[in-house]
Amino acid sequence: MAELKRVVVIGGGMAGSQVAKGLEDHAEVTLIDPKNFFDIPYARLRAIVEPAIAERSLVLHSEYLKKAKIVESCAESATATEVVTSSGEHIPYDYLVICTGTLFQSPPEKTTKLERIEEMKGQNRTLLEAESVLIIGGGPVGVELAGEILNDFPEKKVTIVCSADRLIEFLGPKASRKCEKWLRKKGVTVILKDKIDVNDNLAPPNYETHKHEELKADAHFIATGKKLPTKWLETSEVLKDHVAVDGRLKMEASGTCQVEGLHNVFAAGDITDFKEIKQGYLAGRHAAIVVENIKKLIASPDNAKLLVYKPTNTPMGIVSLGRVLAVAQMPFGTILGRLAGLLKSKDLFIGKTRESLGLRAR
Length: 362
Ligand SMILES: Cc1cc2nc3c(=O)[nH]c(=O)nc-3n(C[C@H](O)[C@H](O)[C@H](O)COP(=O)(O)OP(=O)(O)OC[C@H]3O[C@@H](n4cnc5c(N)ncnc54)[C@H](O)[C@@H]3O)c2cc1C
Description:
The chain is of the alpha/beta class. It has helices spanning 14-23, 46-49, 54-57, 61-64, 113-129, 140-152, 173-185, 231-235, 280-299, 338-344, 350-356; strands at 6-10, 28-33, 37-39, 58-60, 69-72, 75-78, 82-85, 90-92, 95-98, 103-104, 132-136, 157-161, 189-191, 206-208, 214-216, 219-222, 226-227, 265-267, 317-321, 325-330, 333-337.
């Protein structure tokens, strides 16, 4: 029997977990991730009001991967034949898949499931003890957090400071307007076009915005932009010439999910420079194509007919506003209410994500 090909997957988030799972029966798969678990991102804000959600939303990589080798470390560099990790391992590959996503500054990443559960409980204690809460950032993370707090603790006073001129800027103005109106009606103070510096001195109860507005709150949560973890890509022999100016990986224009000019290196998820908004459901679509294309290349290295991914040009998005409501931008229009909430807010796609990894939804 021919030897199994070696596939190294870097990053065990939305895309990497699917790629490793999809290929472990077809190749010798190694998943590299600094965390020993997959943190279903959609649940991160509900976890602040309901830490018990961790039981379903934090999935050990060893729970869904039955054959793949798991290396708990960070990829630090890659050559044309191997990946070197921060723990000093040299891991050879025939196919490399990069799924390192984006890092949110908050909540900070923890490397074990237990640490992450403790962090969730700590955030919950902070929230329970606070009568007033300041949310720094008015993107989907800040708005979803406000929705969760209003749903479970309607008596708490919430303020959102957003540097943009509208909330949830990744969606159209109609979604922003509906969302802002709803939040204000619930008593939330929304401050637009102003910001608060996120630094180590940030502490309750006094905060000052760039425009010198003084705010008081018993606690703050940071929901500001994303930071791409791409430094190592820029210094990696095989990848450094394939990093776009924004830190993402330049992808083959044909849509095969290969990194431009590299036959055996693929990428999926937020790290790709596909011209579309960065979302988990799209990361899942990239992952499915990567799985099929690597299977095809393994079966027929010289004349595989690869599948192609077409970036989506009709941005859809659902921002939940607690457990029942949501604002949704869909191809048929933008809505806010229970109908939109039915699509996401109750389970936050946790069951669906677990099932896609072969686990029980509940
Ligand atoms: C609160 C929240 C709610 C969201 N809601 C939605 C939603 O409703 N719908 C939707 O479609 N999208 C949503 N998103 C966006 C979605 O989560 C992301 O688009 C998706 O997670 C991207 O998947 P990814 O695999 O590219 O990256 P991630 O899921 O971020 O995974 C990246 C992985 O790479 C690992 N990693 C990073 N650097 C290295 C390294 N050097 N070596 C090894 N491993 C590394 C990380 O530890 C992590 O496990 C939401 C995001 C958040 C934070």
